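queue> pop job 88
queue> type: inverse folding (structure -> sequence)
queue> payload:
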């Protein structure tokens, strides 16, 4: 801390000079991209400019200005943008303590034509993924402010920003990084599941946490309090059972009493207004004596739930005794006076619980007059506030970048002299590439309606806009015959009944539905919090309305009304391929009801998927690149026929070697390592991703896992490691042991190895993959044993008696009988179908 700038010490803000008060430090509150000489003060924080500062560095970035900014919102007049992965680095960080990181996002279009409205990007720090495929395009209010808590592991802290694709930029308007109060997060807490109590959770301090809810129960919105926690919202929209609740409770105490009570927040951490309001239930009147709040949360994830209490209702300390319920099955008796913990009223306190969310995506919290002491007559139960923080997942993007970089270095350092020369040439190319990209203008189509509302009303930090005011221009060529009304969608899904929820992904939620015709469908409803946007929505409609193949999922219709972006597909009875291989939670055991696929069935699913991808790739205009091939995007019908799904990220046409706009928004573990050096995404990238899927089918494990053994983390590395040792059978799904013909396994392993080669030019086409998988199936069915001298890479057509077809992606590969278009009787080719299809503007 020796080099810490002296002037920052003079800006320390002492909110209240009390021994129990937490002093809010001024390290660091940063106005990103600003050149102002006057700090901006906001809710007790003095924001300084981020240029030419010795305590932090901004990385490879640019400052942009909003010339039409609202003068009442000076903090959001500028932003810092990142065109390539880079980091905002902080020095003089205290080790092994918890830091609060707060990021501010307020999109605008700069005078240079840089449109932040449609930005999609990733943010990570300390190996935790803070934001993934993050966008503000469908946000209801601005600025968008996100809060995170993580533990600093050394004396520096880096926050990484990375565009999700080559057409986007990452941006941030303001950054706050400061020490959280001591013991703000403690290590142990009761663990709760939907079934009830489950012991004690240990290790909270090592987790990264993102705040998803701060609820001021019984009170109003709080955004301008000079405390650690901001963004408290009223609880009304979360109440599902109000009982006989009373709001805005009376305050007998002139001031709140902060003392030394265990699990009492320090003053200046929680706004006083949170503890001066509450909702309570009282006995009598024949009304159910409880209140229940319901929150929409991520499925099957860890949550830190913190409930706040402060008895401002009683004129004196008494034996107040009531119950807190979580999921209805876990009960905590609340009696703050029972053991002398509280000697007076008006003392805030809280309880922490680590809650494992279930598959429903909802969390219920209740208070009730019921207590452990049923003989005690209870007069009321109450709750002042509630916070929900979600456990952040580990970031694998940094791992992917490091892996790609290391492979590139290993590839060019042999021999040594050649390596030095190659590295020099590479550096020159990267430098020229970055200069070129810096000068290239981002093409945007934007109107006044796309920009956030700039008028200042009432002095609020937030301006509200509708979901669809932030969109791009309407895309023509949508098939209006497929359009379905929102009313019909509501009827089909029973108003999106949670009982009909069958999945959730990066786009939002998927529901099972039944149309008026009786046809079963899957309804995919975009969620503004996840990141599917209008371009992806339009792309999927355009692609699926103009192609038809037995191994591609069929689009039944779409709904595009108001803020709703909904796609309706044929219902795939057996769900995703991953569902039949392993649980979505890698720590759980496989579900026995879904894990009975034989090796023959798995090969047939892989072959069907390969046919679908080959069909996409072999169009006359370069075909379609899927760009998000993974096991959750391969669906199975009632007969286990595989169909490739999710074309929101697809792109048509051949890659342009001089165009970096063909970005990737794929999934960790499936990304083509060549992309990170070429900035191109080709059909060979789909081949690489499919190679990872093949390993999933063989090993029944996720593409990325958490492991102390580095070679096990990434499935592609793990599979290649054992294939090179010639012992692939050691990592196969235990259900397949002794059920795979060795020759079939050998052929399958060779297909995987070829798909996962570092250089795209060395990988096979999907037609090559299809032929070899057919051959692996033939080996399994006929138990054919090859002689040792036979070449395993020989053309399978000689063994199978199939017609010899040249292995070129542009070949007119004849489809099988059941691969015909539904509306025609004649044999067609992939090229014939794609000759009429051109997709413009897809990302």
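queue> result:
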């Amino acid at each position: 801390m020796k080099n810490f700038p002296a002037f920052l010490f003079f800006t320390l803000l002492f909110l209240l000079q009390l021994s129990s008060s937490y002093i809010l430090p001024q390290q660091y509150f940063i106005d990103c991209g600003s050149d102002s000489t006057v700090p901006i003060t906001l809710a007790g924080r003095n924001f300084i400019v981020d240029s030419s500062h010795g305590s932090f560095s901004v990385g490879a970035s640019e400052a942009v200005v909003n010339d039409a900014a609202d003068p009442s919102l000076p903090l959001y007049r500028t932003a810092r943008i990142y065109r390539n992965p880079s980091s905002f680095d902080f020095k003089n960080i205290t080790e092994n303590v918890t830091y609060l990181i707060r990021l501010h996002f307020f999109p605008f279009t700069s005078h240079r034509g840089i449109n932040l409205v449609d930005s999609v990007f990733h943010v990570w720090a300390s190996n935790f993924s803070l934001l993934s495929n993050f966008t503000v395009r469908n946000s209801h209010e601005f600025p968008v402010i996100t809060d995170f808590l993580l533990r600093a592991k050394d004396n520096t802290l880096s926050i990484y920003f990375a565009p999700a694709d080559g057409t986007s930029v990452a941006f941030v308007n303001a950054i706050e990084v400061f020490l959280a109060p001591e013991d703000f997060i403690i290590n142990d807490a009761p663990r709760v599941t939907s079934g009830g109590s489950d012991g004690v959770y240990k290790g909270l301090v090592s987790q990264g946490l993102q705040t998803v809810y701060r609820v001021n129960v019984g009170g109003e919105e709080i955004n301008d309090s000079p405390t650690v926690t901001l963004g408290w919202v009223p609880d009304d929209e979360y109440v599902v059972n109000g009982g006989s609740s009373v709001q805005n409770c009376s305050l007998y105490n002139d001031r709140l009493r902060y003392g030394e009570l265990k699990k009492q927040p320090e003053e200046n951490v929680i706004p006083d207004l949170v503890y001066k309001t509450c909702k309570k239930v009282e006995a009598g009147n024949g009304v159910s004596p409880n209140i229940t709040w319901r929150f929409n949360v991520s499925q099957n994830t860890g949550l830190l739930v913190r409930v706040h209490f402060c008895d401002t209702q009683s004129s004196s300390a008494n034996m107040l005794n009531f119950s807190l319920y979580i999921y209805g099955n876990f009960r905590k008796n609340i009696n703050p006076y029972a053991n002398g913990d509280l000697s007076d009223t008006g003392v805030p306190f809280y309880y922490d619980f680590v809650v494992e969310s279930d598959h429903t995506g909802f969390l219920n919290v209740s208070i009730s007059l019921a207590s452990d002491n049923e003989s005690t007559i209870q007069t009321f139960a109450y709750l002042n506030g509630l916070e929900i923080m979600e456990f952040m997942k580990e970031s694998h993007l940094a791992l992917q970048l490091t892996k790609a970089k290391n492979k590139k270095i290993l590839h060019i350092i042999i021999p040594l002299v050649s390596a030095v020369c190659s590295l020099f040439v590479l550096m020159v190319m990267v430098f020229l590439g970055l200069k070129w990209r810096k000068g290239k203008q981002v093409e945007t189509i934007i109107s006044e309606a796309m920009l956030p509302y700039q008028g200042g009303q009432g002095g609020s930090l937030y301006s509200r806009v509708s979901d669809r005011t932030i969109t791009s221009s309407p895309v023509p060529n949508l098939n209006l015959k497929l359009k379905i009304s929102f009313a019909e969608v509501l009827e089909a899904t029973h108003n999106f009944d949670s009982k009909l929820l069958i999945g959730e992904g990066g786009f939002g939620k998927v529901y099972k539905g039944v149309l008026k015709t009786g046809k079963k469908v899957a309804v995919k409803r975009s969620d503004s919090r996840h990141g599917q946007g209008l371009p992806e929505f339009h792309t999927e409609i355009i692609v699926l309305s103009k192609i038809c193949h037995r191994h591609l999922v069929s689009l039944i219709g779409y709904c595009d009304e108001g803020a709703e972006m909904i796609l309706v597909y044929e219902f795939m009875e057996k769900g995703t391929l991953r569902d039949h291989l392993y649980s979505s939670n890698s720590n759980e055991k496989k579900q026995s009801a879904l894990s009975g696929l034989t090796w023959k069935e798995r090969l047939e699913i892989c072959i069907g998927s390969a046919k679908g991808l080959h069909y996409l790739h072999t169009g006359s205009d370069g075909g379609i690149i899927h760009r998000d091939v993974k096991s959750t995007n391969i669906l199975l019908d009632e007969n286990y026929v595989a169909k490739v799904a999710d074309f929101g990220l697809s792109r048509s046409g051949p890659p342009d070697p001089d165009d970096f706009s063909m970005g990737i928004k794929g999934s960790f573990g499936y990304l083509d390592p060549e992309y990170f050096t070429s900035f191109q995404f080709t059909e060979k990238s789909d081949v690489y991703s499919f190679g990872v899927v093949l390993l999933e089918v063989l090993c029944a494990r996720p593409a990325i896992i958490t492991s102390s053994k580095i070679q096990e983390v990434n499935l592609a590395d793990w599979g290649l490691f054992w294939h090179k040792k010639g012992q692939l059978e050691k990592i196969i799904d235990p259900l397949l042991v002794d059920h795979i013909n060795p020759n079939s396994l050998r052929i399958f392993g060779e297909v995987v190895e070829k798909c996962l080669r570092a250089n795209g030019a060395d990988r096979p086409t999907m037609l090559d993959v299809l032929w070899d998988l057919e051959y692996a199936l033939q080996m399994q069915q006929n138990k054919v044993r090859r002689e040792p001298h036979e070449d395993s890479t020989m053309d399978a057509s000689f063994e199978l008696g199939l017609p010899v077809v040249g292995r070129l992606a542009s070949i007119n590969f004849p489809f099988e009988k059941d691969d015909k278009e539904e509306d025609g009787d004649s044999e067609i080719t992939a090229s014939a179908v794609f000759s009429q299809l051109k997709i413009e503007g897809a990302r």
